[in-house]
Write a structure and sequence with these properties.
Chain lengths: 641, 153
């Protein structure tokens, strides 16, 4: 118990229920710190790490999958995982962070199954085949159970089902919903039977509630609601609904005109929740309303689009909100877990929340009030380039500290000179229209002229779960300096605009080498000192293998998150260079790097096994939205020999 | 479409598919109905048609979408991949046959064969610069089709 007390005091966390050798929920704790007090692996011995095991998610007892490699893409065409992995298992890609509780590892797989493993060996204890859609790619939640219910595994599917499985047996819990399944679609579809609704991230459990977000469409405007809902963890009965788009009379409804709110889709938590257990507050990072790049049919600030919203976790009642992008037309969805920590400033302790954004910032707010701790300024942004009929919002809230953590604008003189060939391609691309591509500073609009937008529609940051070292007071976040390349075109019926690529490309890069057209860095890892709001250190994250050695250190586009440990380490994959790394949490020095089966667009976790060993685990399947051509189906564990 | 002007020198002659594709604007062909049904419910078609991919690239993309909720039979999904490859495809010049090089990139028999022969003698082509140096190819023709050319999956 002593260890728990120390950890709780250090991190300012209440409600840690499990030993520090476990990893009981997505973010390690409900505060989302992704910090483990384990320190067997430390800065001195991290270079000795070896692979302890590899679990192939698509493997079955009958037909083990071939070891993952960059050539595993071949499996897509031939046998093995089959086309789309179907049969072998829907999807294939995975962004999962496994959980470990009381000596058992649980995860959703890209192979369409949910599995329980011996965490020291990856031997299967039970497997559950999800026949209805794919289990959420980012994983599942664990509930300890009580006198009425057994320990329970909870997860959503791509088709809008919420499953409750007995953690011991892997069998559906009969008393939950209909034989262990709640159909989340009714009540979310706005009467539109064919609209899409699912979960891609794990739900979160608080007391007797299991709380779910929504994975809904990006367009057209009308579709399923992105509401957050809470269900009774015993029965699956709906307990409360938070309208992500306020109805008439609700706070924020005045940010919509007329009936524009009606049946509007988007505005959803497709990323990760966190909970302040001490104060009973749920933190919800909301995405933007539909459609993503054209707001002509939704004038106004459009709450709670692209907003961080705090509600009473037991009732869903609004506590506060903070909108990060007004009238978002950049697809700058909030999606990263809002990390909870304490800020010590002028000798005072302030309960805080830090939110990494696609727009390239970290907002550090008082988590009880929503007030910025280091100041936020409403800055004028361009409106003159907004699409005809779209009323661009004239200001956006920019944090005074920390500074932008990703490139937020672009000028012609910043074209990449990394190689003569890249420079030639990018220069020709930029100059391919008279006056050059459209780019007029931060919050440049997607225009009818081909436009370069920094950060891109996939960040900046993305759903990247940060990690937090309570002793150092450092928040570790990864971002990319990466741009979108698009032009907006009028729909055939002339009523709206939609986003198209330009020249067979929709990223500001050379699409065969995956080298961005802006000067490096292309991806970075930062430590933010939350007690000052300053950047404590930053480093490039990832290398470009195709460049000569002295030029490789460019940083790489990355999506995924980190893990911090009391061993003084930050572990992270995320990049598209198929590598897994450890950094010194104090200095940012890269201490260890290892080539892995594919890009790890996921967030690593750690636990201590029954054998006394500390394991570091990361999922690596490549693919994803970075154009990563690597492919595998691996969950990989590392340990000291 | 005014934007067509902008493509001068970069993309010529290919299926000009860069426009904002409403489902109404999608070129007719086998698989169009499946694309409309399966893809257009969740995002604008221009999200799909804005970038080009090889067949394997489209297969992987469809896999991603299945894990994110796209629903359809295996046959439907195959039709989607085939449609997107046909109209919004890219050709991997390291694996394509001479016949594919001819039909997809509009190369002559000799030009296509030159690439295949070069590949057999020198191994995989690394990038576009190397491709333009293959003896017997028409550099201008290739440059015009650059956005249709891939060097890996």
């Amino acid at each position: 118990m002593r260890v728990i007390t120390v950890a709780a005091a250090a991190a300012g966390l209440a409600g840690l229920l499990y030993g520090q050798s476990d990893w009981p929920t997505f973010g390690h704790d409900l505060s989302g710190t992704r910090f483990s007090t384990l320190k067997q692996i430390d800065a001195k011995n991290v270079t000795k790490l070896v692979r302890a095991w590899t679990y192939h998610m698509s493997a079955t007892a009958q037909a083990p999958a071939a070891p993952g490699s960059s050539e595993a893409g071949d499996a897509v065409e031939g046998g093995g995982r089959g086309r789309g992995g179907r049969g072998g298992g829907r999807g294939g890609n995975s962004e999962v962070s496994p959980l470990v509780i009381n000596g058992v590892m649980y995860l959703t797989t890209g192979g369409g199954r949910v599995v329980a493993l011996e965490p020291e060996t990856a031997k299967e204890i039970w497997t559950f085949d999800v026949k209805d859609g794919a289990p959420a790619t980012r994983g599942l939640e664990f509930w300890a159970g009580d006198k009425d219910s057994p320990p329970t595994i909870l997860f959503g599917t791509s088709t809008g089902k919420l499953f409750a499985l007995n953690a011991k047996t892997g069998k559906p819990i009969p008393g939950f919903g209909n034989e262990g399944i709640v159909d989340m679609k009714p009540g979310a579809l706005n009467g539109l039977a064919n609209s899409s609704f699912g979960l891609s991230s794990p739900p979160i459990v608080y007391k007797n509630l299991v709380i779910t977000g929504a994975h809904v469409q990006e367009g057209p405007s009308i579709g399923a609601a992105g509401d957050t809902r809470a269900w009774d963890v015993h029965t699956g009965k709906l307990v409360w609904t938070f309208h992500s788009i306020p109805r008439p009379g609700e706070t924020g409804s005045d940010t919509w005109k007329g009936d524009d709110w009606k049946n509007r889709s988007g505005t959803n938590v497709w990323g990760l929740f966190t909970i302040d257990t001490e104060n009973g507050i749920l933190y919800m990072p909301f995405g933007e309303p539909t459609t993503d790049y054209w707001g002509g049919d939704r004038p106004g600030k459009n709450l709670f689009g692209t907003s961080l919203v705090a509600v009473d976790a037991l009732t869903g009642k609004l506590r506060w909100y903070f909108q990060v992008v007004h009238h978002d037309t950049w697809d700058y969805d909030l999606c990263a877990p809002p990390v909870l920590f304490d800020v010590t400033r002028n000798g005072k302790k302030i309960p805080a929340v830090g939110e990494l954004t696609k727009s390239g910032y970290v907002y550090i707010l008082n988590r009880l009030t929503g007030e910025p701790i280091y100041g936020v300024e409403e800055r004028k942004v361009p409106v003159e380039d907004a699409l005809p009929g779209d009323q661009a919002w004239p200001t956006q809230p920019i944090p005074l500290k920390p500074p932008a953590l990703a490139r937020t604008s672009f000028k012609r003189e910043e074209l990449a000179t990394v190689t003569p060939e890249l420079n030639k391609f990018c220069t020709e691309l930029f100059d391919s229209i008279p006056g050059g591509l459209h780019a007029i500073g931060s919050f440049t609009h997607y225009s009818t002229t081909p436009s370069v937008i920094f950060p891109s529609s996939i960040g900046g940051g993305n759903w990247n779960p940060p990690s937090f070292d309570p002793k150092l007071g450092y928040l570790f976040v990864n971002t990319m300096d990466f741009g979108s390349l698009n032009q907006m075109v009028k729909s055939a019926d002339g009523t709206r605009y939609s986003r198209a690529g330009y020249n067979g490309n929709n990223r500001f890069w050379e699409p065969e080498s995956n080298m961005p057209c802006n000067q490096p860095p292309w991806g970075r890892l930062f430590a933010i000192n939350v007690n000052t709001g300053e950047i404590a250190w930053q480093t490039t994250l990832g290398i470009t293998d195709s460049l000569p050695a002295e030029k490789q250190n460019t940083g790489r586009p990355n999506i995924g998150g980190s893990l911090a440990t009391a061993g003084g380490l930050v572990f992270i994959g995320a990049t598209d260079d198929s590598r897994f790394r450890a950094f010194d949490s104090k200095t940012g020095k890269e201490l260890w790097v290892t080539k892995i089966d594919a890009g790890a667009h996921s967030a690593p976790m750690t636990f201590q096994g029954k054998d006394g060993k500390q394991y570091i685990v990361v999922t690596a399947t490549g693919g994803g939205f970075l154009g990563d051509r690597s492919r595998a189906d691996s969950v990989i564990a590392f340990a000291l020999p | 479409m005014g934007s067509r002007l902008y493509f001068a020198g970069l993309l010529v002659g290919a299926t000009l598919a860069a426009g904002g594709q409403d489902t109404l604007d999608l070129p007719d062909g086998k698989g169009k109905e499946q694309v409309k049904k399966i893809c257009a419910g969740c995002h604008e078609m221009s999200t799909v048609t804005g970038s080009r991919r090889t067949k394997i690239g489209w297969q992987q993309n469809v896999e991603e979408m299945i894990s994110r909720g796209a629903e359809g039979s295996d046959a439907d999904m195959e039709a989607v991949v085939d449609y997107l490859t046909k109209f919004f495809g890219k050709l991997n010049v390291n694996t394509a046959s001479a016949k594919e090089l001819q039909s997809f990139l509009g190369l002559s028999d000799e030009e296509a064969q030159a690439i295949v022969t070069y590949r057999e003698q020198n191994g995989k082509l690394k990038d576009f610069e190397q491709l333009t140096k293959v003896p017997g190819t028409n550099v201008e023709k290739l440059r015009a089709k650059r956005s249709l050319i891939a060097f890996s999956l």
